[in-house]
Amino acid sequence: MAEYDYVIVGAGSAGCVLANRLTAAGRHRVLLLEAGGSDRSPWIQVPIGYGRTFAHPRYNWMYEAEPDPTLANRRAYWPRGKVLGGSSAINAMVYVRGQPADFDDWRAAGNPGWAWSEVLPYFKKLEDHVWGADEFHGAGGPVHVADVSAQVHPLCETFITTCGNLRIRRTRDFNGADFEAAGLWQLTVRNGIRVSAASAYLRPALRRHNLEVQTHAHATRVLFEAGTASRRAQR
Ligand SMILES: Cc1cc2nc3c(=O)[nH]c(=O)nc-3n(C[C@H](O)[C@H](O)[C@H](O)COP(=O)(O)OP(=O)(O)OC[C@H]3O[C@@H](n4cnc5c(N)ncnc54)[C@H](O)[C@@H]3O)c2cc1C
User: Fold this and answer.
1) Model confidence band, residue 231 (pLDDT cutoffs 50, 70, 90)
2) Which residue range is the domain that position 176 belongs to?
């Protein structure tokens, strides 16, 4: 049986980044297991496919929450990606980072490394922002961030202008200095194609000899022998 230094369960946002990072130095053998299949589908690559994958059993776990008494016992629909890229392959591509104060709260609660000033360099590192590098953004990273303000429906402008009439400030950038305002999202899209964790992080790493990816591999349990995981997922 093949041996690996690391087995990652789930090729979603986290798993794809981890697979890339752990194989970058070439010193470790990594196995990435994904319950879903390939992301080579126009429904995933083309942004409008969001409407299709939102409830498609091939790409989506399509969870249902328990009946909620506060919703007259209705069950909420909880989509989650089941495909290379995970939920980043089926999400709405909106690029909005957490608020600086939230990160600072986490740091203050006793989590070293989570202050806004400490995480911002990593946000910048992942970005290839269409506006280029500045105080809040990075350029040349794996995730392309697009400004689609020139292409939105005129109603969007009407809405934001109306917000202004209600004294809600307008912002050009929810990821900049002024985020408590009305404005237009930036999207993780490049030339009309979705940027997922699979396209940004996994695909470049697939060239490496020390990474193996298995799709349709649903891990159901992990067995340990002498402190080492010893069996793979059932296929
Ligand atoms: C419909 C939708 C719209 C969204 N819109 C946005 C948005 O516009 N902007 C934004 O920032 N965020 C959005 N999100 C949220 C964002 O995509 C997720 O928070 C993020 O992708 C989660 O990353 P993750 O690594 O935690 O999990 P996921 O990306 O969901 O990855 C988990 C992966 O693990 C696999 N897996 C799970 N269990 C097993 C197992 N036992 N064995 C093998 N594989 C397994 C799954 O199939 C999946 O591929 C959206 C999410 C959804 C579902």
Assistant:
1) low
2) 94-187
| Domains of the chain: total | 2
108 and 44 share a domain? no
Q: Determine the residue of 83, 84, 87 to mutate for testing ligand 1's pocket, defined as the one with the most ligand atoms within 8 A of the Cβ atom.
A: 87
**Residues 203, 145 share a domain:** no
Residue 63 CA to ligand 1 centre (angstroms) = 12
Calculate ∠ Cα 221-81-45, nearest 5°: 135
How many angstroms is it from 228 CA to the middle of ligand 1? Answer: 27
When pLDDT is cut at 50, 70 and 90, the band that residue 224 belongs to is confident
Tell me the CA–centroid distance for residue 140 and ligand 1, in Å: 24
Q: Are residues 42 and 54 in the same domain?
A: yes
Nearest atom in ligand 1 to 217's CA: 43
pTM of the model: 0.94
> What is the atom index within ligand 1 of the atom nearest the CA of 83?
49
Residue 176 clears pLDDT 70, i.e. is over it: yes
Phi, psi of 85 (to 5 degrees): 100, -20
CATH number, residue 123: 1.10.1220.110
Three-state SS at 214: strand
What are residue 117's phi and psi, to 5 degrees? Answer: -65, -25
1 and 84 share one domain: yes
Rounded mean pLDDT of 81-89? Answer: 98
Measuring from atom 1 of ligand 1, which residue has the nearest CA?
91
pLDDT at 17 over 80: yes
Whether residues 138 and 103 fall in one domain: yes
Question: With contact defined as beta carbons under 8 Å apart, do 40 and 58 qualify?
Answer: no
